[in-house]
Amino acid sequence: MNNISLETSALLRLPPQSVESEIVVLGALLLDNNVFEHVGDIVSEGDFYRSEHRTIFSVIKSLIEQDKPADLITVFDSLQNNGGADAVGGLAYLNSLAQFVPSAHNAKNYAEHIRESSIKRKMIAASDQIASSAYEPKGRTTAEILDEAEQAVLCIEQLRNHDREILTLDQHLDDSMARLEYRAEHPNQLNGISSGYVDMDKKINGFKPGDLIVIAGRPSMGKTSLAMNIAEHSAIKESKAVLIVSLEMPASQLTDRILGSVGRVDQSRLQTGQLEGDEWSRITDTYESLRGKPLEIEDSGVNTVAGIRAVARRALRRNKTLSLIVVDYLQLMVAAGAGENRNSEIEQISRGLKKLAMDMQCPVIVVAQLNRGVESRNDKRPMMSDLRDSGAIEQDADIVMLLYRDEYYTKDLCREPGVAEINISKHRNGPTGVVKLAWLPSFTRFDNLAY
CA 346, CA 333: separation in Å to the nearest integer? Predict the structure, then answer.
């Protein structure tokens, strides 16, 4: 054995399997077709290790789904008609399956064993494919191979979580009533993550788990600042775990921005180090107050949904919770295998981000660019149709916020200098409308307006 390589040793091992469990499940189904209600959503034909078991299960399933009895005779007849009876051992083998099982009582547990073994085999196959890609990249970059590897593992994990219980209407109604009663008892409490802005919270009532929120605008409108300010409020004021995925700025620049924004210190002086007056003490106090806050910045260049998902899962494992994900920004992301059609690629990305929000059960805020069409109009206020590259963003988003600062275009003629309009142009579960915030450019910060 010492002379056998690890690779050869692995090849000599049988793949994970549970043949006895397969026999029990098939025998139980032949004895009692009602067992299918308990195992049909756990195992599929491809989960069985032995080919004859895959064939038998497929026939049993087909008969049951046609509301026909699936017993020894009907299954055998079906196999004979398809020319597959001899390949599975004929009537004698079917009879042995039924005799092997004294009762159909624990079929669900055995089905889960089959499923677990199947998933382990898929893990081995994925590992082999990952190794093959690493040995023979065929022009793919290491980052692309890593993305494929993460996607392969993710697909297997989703198979592992396939059996989440489907709730009845009564259960959903009970949950709805419980939520309603809680809201009635806590009238001033938001239903989701606070933005930190009073008027925005009144409109949105908090960013909820599963929400995809798009913050869009033309360059220099303050898109990143607004997303960062919301993230700062969540992590610093409410101590909620936040992940920022930055594709545009390194973590060092974002950290400087956070210090200046929270400490109310001029960003230009922060960059030169020439602080004035009490700015040093404010920065020092801010530094101390920020330490230990659950905010993480990912700036390694991860630019796919699969990559962001992997980063988010690592953050979740570290923090035990994840309340908000911010991605800056959408148009810098890519989708594997999308080809040269950018609209199709953006569509794939936006769908992936929405699914990420659903799977991670936390809101995802993504910053997005608006197209140049805004600049050609007399009224520069953006519209939903200005979302760049694809209408899929508009379709997938639960909330779309369009930024506009009149001062940027009209300069000295602006009637409301220092005021930004946040047009909540889409709100899947609530009202739309414009929210006004104070814009403090020296701090790269939005604030509540003082009325």
Answer: 8
Domains of the chain (ranges plus CATH)? 6-160 (1.10.860.10), 191-448 (3.40.50.300)
| 223-279 confidence digits (pLDDT tens) | 999 999 999 999 999 999 999 999 989 999 999 999 999 999 888 888 888 888 888
C-alpha distance across the termini of the chain, in Å: 81
What is the rounded distance in angstroms from the CA atom of residue 414 to the CA atom of residue 418? 9
**Helix (H) or strand (E) segment spanning residue 11:** helix 6-12
Distances (CA, A) of 286 to 236, 243, 253, 255, 407: 11, 20, 16, 12, 30
User: Which of 369, 387, 296 is CA-nearest to residue 333?
Assistant: 369
> What whole-number distance in Å separates Cα of residue 10 and Cα of residue 25?
29
CA distance 258 to 56: 62
Q: Which two tokens stand for residue 174?
A: 């009970």
CA distance 383 to 402: 7
Cβ–Cβ under 8 Å, residues 401 and 367? no
The predicted model scores a pTM of 0.70
CA distances from 184 to 95, 235, 326 (A): 61, 27, 31
Q: How far apart are CA 49 and CA 158, in angstroms?
A: 20
How many H-runs (helices) and E-runs (strands) does the chain carry?
Answer: 18, 9
Q: Residue 336: which of 352, 321, 316, 324 has the closest Cα?
A: 352
DSSP 125-170: HHHHHHHHHHH--TT--HHHHHHHHHHHHHHHHHHHTTTPPPPPHH
Can you give the length of the chain in residues?
451
